[in-house]
Amino acid sequence: MDLVVVLVISLSCLLLLSLWRQRSGRGKLPPGPMPLPIIGNILQIDPKNISKSLTNLSKVYGPVFTLYLGMRPTVVLHGYEAVKEALIDHGEVFSGRGSFPVPDRVSKGLGVILTTGSRWREMRRFSLMTLRNFGMGKRSIEDRIQEEARCLVEELRKTKSSPCDPTCMLVCAPCNVICSIIFHNRFDYKDQHFLNFIQKSNESLEILSSPWIQVCNNFPVLIDYFPGSHKTFFKNVADLKQYFLEKIKEHQESLDMNNPRDLIDCFLIKMEEEKDNPQTEFTIEALVNLVNDLFGAGTETTSTTLRYGLLLLLKHPEVTEKVQEEIHYVIGRHRSPCMQDKSSMPYTEAVLHEIQRYIDLVPTSVPHAVNCDTKFRNYFIPKGTSIITSLTSVLHDSKEFPNPEKFDPGHFLDKSGKFKKSDYFMPFSTGKRVCAGEGLARMELFLFLTTILQNFHLKSVVDPKVLDTTPVATGFVSVPPAYQICFFPV
Q1: pLDDT of res. 211
Q2: For position 21, what pLDDT does the model report?
Q3: Any binding-site annotation on 435?
C-alpha cells in the first residue's frame, strides 16, 4: 500500500511540475493551444499529416504559435513572411539545430545535418568547399552526372519497354554520383552489395517518415524501452557506418597528400594538417558521420524527387510532351544534355520547379533552434527552443501559386512563356541552414530528367487519370506511392 501511495504522489508531482512548466512560459512564448500534462499538444497533431495539422492550428493562432510536443515547447513558423523573417532576416539567431531524438541518437552530435555552433560551421564550410571545387582539375561534377545519366539510360533500355518499378534504378544513379565524389568510384547497377547498401538507405528514409518515429521523436523515452522500427533504423545506420569506416581505412592506406582523389582524401589531409590541434573537429568519427550525412542527403532526396517527378509526368502526359518538344528543339537527339542548355529551356525549368513545389519533399524541414534568447514579433523565445518551419505553407501558398494543390508548370512561367522565379520556392529550405547540396541536386534533377526524356517515351500501365499521386507518408519526407512505368525508346 505504501508503494501505491508513493507512486500516486510521484505521479501527481510530475503532473503539477508539467503544468507549472507549461504555464510559466506561456506568457512569453507565442500563443498556442492549451497543452495537456506530460503529452502536451500531441493529440492535436496527426502524425500521418503533420503539415495539415499545423495549417489548421495557424488558422486559429496565427503564423507564429507554440506547440508542446511532450513537455518541450516548440515554436512553429507558418507562411512565407514568418519563415523569411526568421531564417533570412534573423538567420544567425535561428541557425541552431533543434532536437531530433531518433537521428540524433546515431549522429552523436557529429556530421553536418544535426550539428550546431562552431562544429556545424566547420563541417559545412568544408563540405561546401569540397563540393564546389571537386574535380581537382580532372572531371567536374557535371561530367560525372552526365556519365551516370548515360549509364541510367542503358539500364532503362534493358527493361525492353516492359512494365517496371523504377525505384531501384532511380536510386542507383544519384547514389553513384555521390559515391564518386566521396569514394572515387561507382558501382554496377546489379552489384548485390551496392543494392543491399541502397536498400538499407531507402528503408531508413521510409522509417524516418513513419508515424511511429514522429511519436518517438516527441517521447524519446520510448526509444530505449520499446520495440519498433527505430531499432531497424539504428541497425541500418550502424551497417552503413561500418562500410564507410572500411572505405576510410582503405583511403588511409593509399593516401597521397599531394593528390586527393575524393572527399575522404580531402578530409584525411585536413586531419593531418590539424593533428596537433587538440580542439580539432576533424576526426575519424566526425568523418564517418559526415559521409553518412552526405550520402543520405545526396542519394535519397534526389532519387525520391526523380521517382515522384516521373509519376507526375505519367499523370500529365501533355506536360511530358511539351518538355520533350523543348528537349528535341534545344538539344536534339545526338548529344547529351548539359547545364548550359537550361537557360534555353524555360518550360523544362518550370516543370522541374513545379515538381519540387508540388511534392513538398521535406514538409517541415529539419528542426531549427534559436542560438540565444530572442525577441521575435514581440514574443520572447528562450535560447535552445526548437523551431519548426512549415515549408508546405510556403510552397503551397495560394496567393503565390493559384490552386496550389494542382500540378501546374504555369506557376513558374510568365505570360510570355519565360521562366519566372519565385521567392516562395524553398524546397531546400532557406537561410543559413539551406541544404549544402542544393547546387548538386538541381544539376542532377535537370540532367537526369532531360536525358531520360530525350531517350524515352513514358507509358503508364493504367489510365493516367486514375494514377494516384498522393504520398504514402508525409513524416520527415513525402514518400510517393509505388507505381509501374514503361520506357519506350524514342
Answers
A1: 85
A2: 47
A3: yes
